[in-house]
Write a structure and sequence with these properties.
Blueprint lengths: L1 H26 L1 H38 L19 H12 L1 H7 L2 H8 L9 H14 L2 H20 L11 H4 L1 H4 L2 H37 L5 H21 L1 H26 L2 H17 L1 H5 L9 H27 L6 H28 L3 H7 L6 H6 L5 H30 L9 H21 L2 H11 L2 H26 L5
Helix pairs in contact: 1-2, 1-10, 1-20, 2-7, 2-15, 2-16, 2-21, 2-22, 3-12, 3-15, 3-16, 3-19, 4-19, 5-6, 5-16, 5-17, 6-13, 6-16, 7-15, 7-16, 7-22, 10-11, 10-15, 10-19, 10-20, 10-21, 11-12, 11-19, 11-20, 12-19, 13-16, 15-19, 15-21, 19-20
Length: 500
């Protein structure tokens, strides 16, 4: 009975918190926006250093653990095997982690940096090199290491130690099981649920704008609120259906489709675009990324202007942290049977390489057209991809596949989140009830629709990022907790070789 009470507390309090935030955003968008922006600006001004240190720590910790004596430790019993093939596993973690963002920013971000680089003149070869390198930096090892910290700690506690699939379970080695069942554990889980709902609802709304923009650009379908709400409704039906179908039937199938569609767009773009420039961009960009990794990881001006760093790097680091509870939980759920080394290599190295290739290809496509097209493309971020593609042969066909990919990536992120929210509000149940999955699916859709109507999507994004700030501390402690339990289990295994 005590366990059930905790379940209901987290479930109901989370719903109340989410609806209270939504109501505030709808009834007083200006007040909500002012509070969210004020809090975020304060955090950027006072704590940029903490974001930078935290994200570098996550990279260092994950890689050090993978190549340490703990790298061969299984996320589960010693004799268990991975549930999914490497391809399906990669597809699911990539789709849930940032799939939609690659389509949204793949062309746009390099062009923004090309026109307005940090410390260089826009539109030059130096600016182009900076644009590719910085895109690699924002979408590379840091982002995925951030996800891996939560995912690894949770998978270990869940499958190796048999604890509930909740963010709070990660802290049992530090705080003890009884404290985690109390207000501290519930508070962590409620914060994780809010960050997940707000983050996914924001992405659902922003992605809807891009799908609508793409349909308008390609087929003349009007960019209106009615069309956008219709897109959300259709996508909602599909992602709830796939979430209810479960991981094997719904989420895995869509993730495999995502990989195929993304490969078609990527290969097609390489064939129609400046192929040699793309290869050179990848080679040079990766070299600049690696050689500048330490410098860029800690780059903050002590006496100068940090507006560029705050608006780009710190914003990204905060956004990845806001997404960490959801993506980390989902990655943990699909990673049973992997070793720690396999997990880290699969979650950090493989997706980062895919991101590098993506940004090299689409960054080169955009930059190759010069500053005039770059300026046109960046007027509206949602249409940047389509504006660039119209200048290439078969660009319309690739754009159509991209709209399809936007939809499937969306559905993958949303159904993964729906599944995870069901777990979070069911004491970590690996297969939560369909009722809870349907409810959370509807909550995300209603939240996105309401804030779209109130013009508060960007504001909610800022708000969720600001509210997720404590998760930077939570994730540092997660590293400490995981290392503590690994050391304890190692000692126990020496004392009792038959222990798991």
């Amino acid at each position: 009975m005590k366990e059930m009470k905790k379940n209901n507390n987290v479930y109901y309090i989370s719903l109340v918190v989410v609806f209270a935030i939504v109501l505030w955003g709808i009834l007083s968008p200006e007040g909500f926006g002012s509070a969210a922006n004020g809090l975020f600006n304060f955090l950027v001004d006072k704590f940029s250093w903490l974001y930078l240190l935290s994200m570098f720590l996550f990279v260092a910790f994950a890689l050090a653990l993978a190549f340490s004596r703990f790298g061969s430790v299984k996320l589960g019993p010693d004799d268990c095997k991975p549930e999914y093939s490497n391809v399906s596993w990669f597809g699911m973690l990539f789709g849930s982690g940032m799939g939609i963002g690659l389509v949204f920013w793949g062309v746009a971000e390099p062009l923004y940096h090309y026109l307005a680089p940090l410390g260089a003149e826009g539109g030059t070869a130096e600016a182009a090199n900076f644009a590719i390198k910085q895109s690699f930096f924002h979408w590379g090892f840091h982002a995925w290491a951030n996800y891996s910290v939560i995912g690894l700690a949770l998978a270990y506690m869940q499958f190796r130690k048999g604890k509930p699939g909740l963010i709070s379970s990660i802290f049992i080695p530090l705080l003890g099981e009884e404290r985690i069942k109390g207000p501290i554990g519930q508070g962590i889980d409620i914060l994780a649920i809010f960050a997940t709902v707000a983050g996914v609802a924001t992405s659902l709304g922003l992605g809807t704008l891009q799908i609508n923009s793409g349909l308008n650009f390609l087929f003349g379908i009007p960019a209106t609120t009615i069309v956008q709400i219709s897109i959300i409704a259709i996508i909602t039906v599909v992602y709830i259906w796939t979430a209810v179908s479960g991981i094997e039937k719904g989420i895995k199938l869509l993730s495999d489709i995502n990989l195929i569609a993304a490969a078609i767009i990527l290969v097609g773009s390489i064939l129609i675009g400046p192929t040699v420039k793309m290869i050179n961009a990848l080679t040079n960009g990766f070299g600049m990324y690696v050689t500048g990794f330490i410098r860029d990881s800690f780059h903050i001006e002590a006496f100068g202007d940090n507006s560029w760093i705050g608006g780009w790097t710190i914003f990204y680091w905060a956004w990845w942290i806001a997404w960490a509870p959801f993506v980390g939980m989902f990655i943990a759920r699909i990673s049973k049977g992997r070793t720690i080394k396999e997990f880290v290599m699969g979650v950090i190295i493989a997706p980062s390489i895919a991101s590098f290739i993506w940004f090299a290809v689409f960054g080169a496509l955009g930059i190759n057209l010069g500053t005039e097209v770059a300026a046109e493309a960046t007027k509206v971020t949602e249409t940047a991809f389509f504006v660039v593609m119209k200048h290439y042969p078969l660009g319309n066909i690739i754009s159509m596949v991209a709209v399809f990919l936007l939809c499937t990536f969306f559905i993958t992120s949303a159904n993964s989140a729906t599944f995870v929210l069901g777990m979070m509000s069911s004491n970590g149940e690996l297969n939560p009830s369909n009722g809870k999955k349907i409810l959370w699916g509807l909550v995300q859709a209603l939240l996105a629709s309401a804030l779209l109507l109130a013009g508060g999507l960007k504001t909610l994004q800022i708000g969720s990022i600001a509210a997720a700030f404590p998760f930077a501390i939570v994730m540092i402690l997660a590293c400490v907790s995981l290392y503590k339990i690994l050391l304890e289990d190692e000692k126990n295994k020496v004392k009792d070789p038959s222990a798991n």
